[in-house]
Structure prediction request, 386 residues.
Amino acid sequence: MNNFEFKNPTKILFGKGQIESIENEIPKDAKVLMLFGGGSIKKNGIYEQVKTALQNHEVVEFGGIPANPEYSVLMKALKVIKEENITYLLAVGGGSVIDGTKFLSAAALYEGEGPWEILTNKIPILKGMPFGTVLTLPATGSEMNSGAVITRKDTKEKLVMGGTGLYPTFSVLDPQVTHSIPHRQLVNGITDAFTHVLEQYITYPIGAALQDRISESILQTLIEVAPKILADPTDHTAASNFMWSCTMALNGLIKQGVPTDWAIHAMGHELTALYGIDHARTLAVIAPSHYEYNLETKKEKLAQYAERVWNITDGSTEDKARAAIKRTEAFFNEMGIDTKLSQYTDDYEGTAEEISKRFKKRGMEGLGEHQNLTPEDVEKIVKMSY
Prediction:
């Protein structure tokens, strides 16, 4: 196991009725900007719960943050922050709203020429405007980590940012929110969380027995609860385990002391930027080809994954590794996720070359846990995903 330092300062308020607790988590003298998405929170009762909890605070609202938080929309929110002298941010939504709020937390205190350079120059954010979250869509784990992904439509880019200053001060996780989540978004959430674990787990053995077991338990839990939550989003036990699994998948715990990959995400982000495909679905498109292409370096962990998660025990290490890839793709398919790019767009020719070109331009010459995947490798993997 590698050396590591681990600190996660986010306070979690988990369970039914926890939204009312936010009154005590936000400073009394704070001027709050409440950020949300397309307005679903006004239909499912969450908006009223939050407003009631904040009745003793001064609150300004900003809605309309889209899936894949758009830079131009966030810049309008930043203007509100400046003009209204906002001192505290509250994200009420899923990963997109929370990621957008993280960008605003950083941008509000940024003194450079333009906030987009935070992403293009990969500037680590050590201090941001304080913010909390009320999670409405389990998926990304953004409610308990310090990373974010922001989209810019005019340049067709989707870039990452982060830093120790971007942890939420608190996050409310009420499993009852699953009651009103559309089936497609529940499937996306399961797929997103599942792939988050794979990116930190399917690398190479390093003797981190506990991290492996925790990763495997999250995967097993998602597999177990997926049919239950998809059949009945009001199943509170399934919803609770689903929500906590999504958070645990990317709150920093399982990556400690181990190598991580994230090449699937890097390629998937480009598919979203180019075609607007749901983030989780781009991961399901890339993952099988990525593991097949890198079978030789990943086969030990793939075989372990096959045995411990899917109970595949027959055959050689390579046989089990290949079987695990096929079973993972089947799991996505069983939930209704297409796993080929051609199933999402007819205009896929040249995609691999374009993504490879983008990676070269950004100097992304060493992806994966061994940092040896070149843009040329990326081109081949994406073509395998057609």
The CA atoms of residues 3 and 257 lie 6 Å apart. The first strand starts at residue 11 and ends at 14. The chain has two domains: 11-176, 183-384. The two ends are 37 Å apart (CA to CA).
